[in-house]
Every structure is written in C-alpha cells, then in structure tokens.
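Session log. Operator J.P. requested a structure for one protein chain; no other inputs attached. Running the standard single-chain path with token output.
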Amino acid sequence: MELETWVLEDGALAFALVLGEETLYLTSFHGLGASKRAAAVTQAWFDRCGDEEFPPEYVKKYAMQEVAMPLADITRITVAEDGDHVGIDGRPPSDSYLLKCAGHLEATEIAHAIALKMGIDLEGRTEEISARDALVPPAISGAITLLLGTALYFSATGESPTSGFRRRAKAEGLASLAEGLGPSGVVLLTGLILVGLGVWAYHRLEDRPLIRIWSP
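Structure written below.
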C-alpha cells in the first residue's frame, strides 16, 4: 500500500497523519516527546510495509490514540486562504478535525493529497467563510482581553473579591504593570483594545476571509 505521511505539531500535541489508498489515519499524542513519538509511528508504518493495523504493543509503547477515517466518509476538506490549518470533515460516525500545519503550503499539500486519492478536482472552489467563523478570532481575543483586564484592575485596586485574580496577576508578571497603569489606566487600555477588536470584527464581516473547499 502506497502511503503518504505527515507529522503535525500543535503546542503540546502532535499528530501522525497517514494517508492510505482508502483510509486516512490520524494518530494523536500529547505530553513530553509527543512529536518524537509521532515521528516514530510514521516510520513504523513504513517498517511494517503499510500494514493497516498496529499490534497492541505499539499502542501501549507510543501512548497513541488512533482514528481511522475511510476516504469515502470524508465530505469536505478546507484550507483558509492564508491559514495554516487543514480542516477534514467526515459524515457520522466519523468526526471532523482541524489540524495545524507548518504553514499554508503544507496545509494545501495535505488537502491536495487527500483530494487526489478521492478523485476530486485539485482546484476545488473558493468561498467566503461564514459570519460566525469570521467573528470567532475577535471574540476569543475579546474574552482574553476582558479576563486579563479584570485581573489587572483588581491587582491595581487591591480589592479582588477572590485571591485568584491576585495570584494570576503575580504569576503572569502583571502586578507591576497594573501598579504603573493604575485602575483608570487599566480601564482605558482595556477599552481601547476592545474598540480595536470591534473594528477588526467589523472589517472581517465586511470583507470576509476566503476559504478553499474540496468536496466529492
């Protein structure tokens, strides 16, 4: 069986992605040495000449969690216009995955490889992302800003209703910043950042990023 393999890293997670003739295998790893274990498993595929089943000792040795997705179950493959993630959607009972790649080129390479195995036109089609997807990055950034702004404010006033805010501020090195800004400065800075995020959200809605889609 001819195989194509990739090792993908996303923080403390790593994934071994193996594309066979009829099945896409996704093996996830986490913790110390995750990327090394992922690389070892991709090499093991070749050492085993592409056998589609790993023996139990492999699963235990590499602490692997493997998902096998038949290519016939894949309904859509997506890559954002300037993104570094590849999305793989499957019909139930298969799941959907959004995998971080080394860059846009690798994400497109993976999408093309899967599309080629599935007999899909490599050009795909281009669409605007949905309004919900356009608002996700500003919304996440806004939530983080509010959280940090609140921690800074209570650190600056010393009137935290719980000790958690004070501990978080000290742990993240924010106490000195809060002291320098003062309560009013923290409010002003947080407000300016939120206004900027609002402008960003507006522009993303007016000029939505494009996404390339491959589907049967």
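Operator note: The CA atoms of residues 116 and 122 lie 7 Å apart.
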